[in-house]
Design a protein that fits this description.
Radius of gyration: 16 Å
Helix content: 25-40%
Protein name: Phycobilisome linker polypeptide
Order of helices and strands: HEEHEH
Membrane topology: Peripheral membrane protein
CATH architecture: 2-Layer Sandwich
Structural class: alpha+beta
Number of domains: 1
CATH topology: Dna Ligase, domain 1
Subcellular location: Cellular thylakoid membrane
Keywords: Antenna complex, Membrane, Phycobilisome, Thylakoid
Strand order of the largest sheet: 2-1-3
Number of strands: 3
């Protein structure tokens, strides 16, 4: 229980299950992105699914790679627009 609140530990919040979609433009290929399993293109935007718990970490990573986040939306909004 070190560093964890006893009050928040017992309840499960819906934020743990939420997934967001980042629309990112301007990512460039570099030594760091060469380790990815996919190519990064400069010419268009890409969509990256990010769990709520990793949002800040992913924002920093995108910034380090030279990208710009042009939009953030919930994954549930994406699935409801498809139906």
């Amino acid at each position: 229980m070190l560093g964890k609140s006893a009050l928040t530990r017992g309840s499960s919040t819906s934020s743990e299950d939420r997934v967001f979609i980042y629309e990112v433009e301007g990512l460039r290929q570099s030594e760091q992105t060469d380790n990815n399993r996919y190519q990064i293109r400069n010419s268009s935007t890409i969509l990256i699914q990010v769990p709520y718990s990793r949002m800040n970490e992913e924002m920093r990573r995108i910034s380090r790679l030279g990208g710009k986040i042009v939009g953030i939306r919930t994954a549930s909004a994406e699935t409801s627009s498809e139906n």
